[in-house]
Amino acid sequence: MHLRTLTLQAIGPFAGSHTVDFDALGQAGLFLLEGPTGSGKSTLIDAIVFALYGKVASSEASEDRLRSAYAPDDVESVVDLVFEVPAGTFRVRRTPAYQRAKRRGSGTTLANASVKAWRLPAGADVTAGTDALDSLGVPLGNRLDEIGAEIQKVVGLDRTQFVQTIVLPQGEFAHFLRAKPEERRGLLQKIFGTEVYERLALRLAEMRREGDRTSASARAALTSGVSQLVGAARLGEQEAAEIRAAVDAAVVRGDGLVEAVRAAVRARTEVLDARADATRTAAATADAARRAAREHLDRSTATEALLRRRDALRAEHAALDAAADVNAEAILQLTAARAAQAVRPLLRGADRARAAHEAARKTVTAALDAAPHDIATPPAGTDLRSHVQVAGRSAAEAAGALARLVDVEAGLEGRRRAVRRAHHGIDDLIAAIAADDRWLAARPDARRALVAELDAARALAAAAGEHESALAAALQTVTAHRDLAAAELGHAEAVAARATAGAVAATALAAERDLRAARIADLAGEIAAGLGDGDACPVCGSVEHPAKAVLEDDHVSAEQVERAEAARAAAESALHAAAELCSVLGERSQALLARVGTVTAEAAGERCEAARAALARSRAAAADVARLLPALEGFDTLTREREAERTAAVSRLAADRATLEVTLQDLDASEAEVVTGRGDHPTVAARHSELLERVAASSAVLDALAEQETAQDESRRRQDELAEGLAEHGFESADEARAAAVDAAVLDELDRVVTAYATRLDRATAGLAEPAIAALDDDLAVDVGAAREAEASARAEADRTSGEASVAQECAAAAAAAAQAVHRAAAVLAEAVDVAGPVSRLADLTGGGGDNARNLSLATFVLMRRFEDVVAAANDRLLVMSDGRFELVRSDEKEDVRARNTGLAMRVIDHRTEQARDPRTLSGGETFYVSLCLALGMADVVTAEAGGIDLGTLFVDEGFGSLDPHTLDAVLAELGRLRAGGRVVGVVSHVEALKQSIADRIEIRPTPAGPSTLTVRAG
């Protein structure tokens, strides 16, 4: 995969639009990505990873960092990447999700992430710019999910593999180098995706545990079933022990488990079935004898009851014959009382009718006395009823004619008061209209003054943005002066520290050189000191040493040289760090000096105070505008409301005047009509009341006359009915009927006595005539006690045999059910054992147990083989970078006694001493280039795993500052090998030596305003 161009806008510290031409940088094969810390070097790598996968390089970082804090709200954040793979040239354009200002109103809204991708035609000019490329290529879509899948397919790597191979994370591989095997295992799993083997082993272990639980549960079920069988069959201790022993032996043996258990159980259940059959036969015989005894007892009891009933009926019939005369007298008295009871309502009706007729005559007299004299006294020869009807009808007609005028007369006073109120209301409206005219006349002048005040406040508030910009610029200048003073002081201190470090490095270098020269000069003495008689000389090979060199007292040992070398390396490292810090602080001082320009600190402070005061005045004016706008609107609203009120009052005044005129005319007409209607009475109501009284008196006389006639007719009818009733029931007179009458209680008692006598006589006669009683012999006798004793004895025997049969059958049935449960449990156990065996063996093998001699799990074994590939690929470069000194080897030893797995330990072979070293003993520079080799080796293995993908562009991140010049040259030479293999290598660093060694570069610099700029220098 080759990167062609990258365009980004409003991303991270880059507020503007910048384009990186990787084709131009790739001409030399090696380029430098450099700039101060925090300027945006890592942002370029994040932009590349985001364009391809929609996420930044670090899995722990958030995509929120992509949106530039320096970009205006209307500028979109965009990453546009063109890259080439064997399948063709592709372009992808992504925008991250971020909060932007709302286009309407205040606040923010979410701008959603978006993506577009194209396949570009062969030979397309990818440097023509995004606008020109928009019309080229075939669109691949614009959905996040489909573009993500398409990009991963054409690149051939997922995001994790891409970051591990294209952007080599030295910090992570330095941790990988020093990590414990368990931690190393996690990283390898993440890179190579071998979690499937881990999940397989875990699943097999879980299946083994499930099989063990199933087997244990089946064993427990079998044991429980045997216990239930023992209880159901009510076996003794010896029998229970025998069946448990037989089942346990079958479980231990395993083969033929189900048949062995079935045979052991069958021997017990057959005995119980035979016992149940014998008890069932005995119970049937005893039950037949019980039924025969019961039938004999029932017959004896029934005969005894018939004899007792015959004796009782004979005694009752004799007593009734003795009371026959008394019963005849009671029948005569009951007949007379019933006849008097039938006539009694007629007697009462005649008495009530006579009393009602008398009351009606009194009511007529009273009504005539209460009526006016002219109504109660008719003219001679005139019927009273007719006279009263005519007088009442005349009074009712006159009262009806006056009824309306009574209401009119009653409402006259209220209508007069309403007229007076209408006059007052008209006067109030006239006064209110005059007040509105005076108030509205003063409004125009007041409004002009309010508008003038608002215009002045608006003019002053409009300058707030200008004052804010001036204040921000002044504050930036003040801050830049303060930062410049601190930066110049820090730079001076860094220059002094660099000079001191240079002197120390020069001294250490001279000391190492002198010690090496002294050691070489006295090397012959050191060799001679180690030679004994007969030893071959390592120089000439002779075994004779006539004149051996003498070892001086101040001889320099190899350990002294190594210490001097370490001191020199530490001094050079300190010098590099001091030089780098001095460069950074110098660049920062120059940038701050350019930012402040010619403005002095005092002038900047004065500008800041003046801008702050002007801004305060503008903000106060803005507050006045916010206050005056509602005030003006309220002023106009109040004016319009008052004008509307005046218009409504004028309309209401005209309407009220017209209504009053009509009301006065109606009132005059009503008063004239009332005067005519009252006649010679004081009021119409008095005349109307008198007429109503005459109508009521006439109605009372007529009602009394009608009631008298009705009562007279009713009295005559009741007397006729009474005479007919007395004759019908045999009474000579009403007095005779009253004498024969008795109370209801006495009548009921007579009826009860007569009826009871007849009922008892009939019942006794019918009972004695029943066939069962009539057929009994007079000397018949039965022995019920003997029959009852025989039946009880037979019932007891039947109950005993039935209980024994029931118990035996229940025991046999329970034992049969328990035996079936035991059979099923044995079958389940046998199946569980057959299933769990192979799973358990596989789980032991994949988990590192059982026959696995090295205790290696399947996941560890796979990772160990991948790890060996990584170590072999890393050693191809490490032997070159370390001048053949270091070599990595995988170790089967446990680095920690608490480690669970072996095979992922690592050692570094130091070929100077041929000793295996712990990676944690390497120095900082050694750790860097060993980690770099591991990262490059990991990249080779990962790409091979992904199908031999061509990695055309590679980024190597920070870490070069820890290398001495010799090792740095070796590392650059190895990177040159990558370049010779067709890769373009980007080195991310700000080490001065790299700036001098690598001409093509991407320079990133922060501006005085804050955002960074990007410059590509190639060719």
Low-confidence stretches: 896-900
Estimated structural class = alpha+beta
Mean pLDDT: 78
The first-level CATH class of the domain at 181-192 and 854-1017 is given as Alpha Beta
What is the helical fraction, as a range of percent? Answer: 55-70%
- Gyration radius, rounded: 65 Å
Shape field: flat
The strand count comes to 17
Describe the sheet with the most strands: 6 strands, antiparallel
Provide key terms for this protein.
single chain; 1019 residues; alpha+beta; Rossmann fold; 6-stranded antiparallel beta sheet; 6-stranded mixed beta sheet
Would you kindly provide a brief summary of this structure?
The chain is α+β, with helices and mostly antiparallel strands and 1019 residues long. It contains 27 helices and 17 strands.
Describe it for me?
Among the domains are: 2-27 and 35-158, P-loop containing nucleotide triphosphate hydrolases (Rossmann fold, 3-Layer(aba) Sandwich), CATH 3.40.50.300; 181-192 and 854-1017, P-loop containing nucleotide triphosphate hydrolases (Rossmann fold), CATH 3.40.50; 459-617. 69% of the residues lie in helices and 9% in strands. The protein has 27 helices and 17 strands. It has a six-stranded antiparallel beta sheet. The protein is flat, with a radius of gyration of 65 Å. Residues 896-900 have low confidence and may be disordered. It holds the Pfam family AAA_23. This is Nuclease SbcCD subunit C. Belongs to the SMC family. SbcC subfamily. InterPro entries: P-loop_NTPase (IPR027417), Rad50/SbcC_AAA (IPR038729).
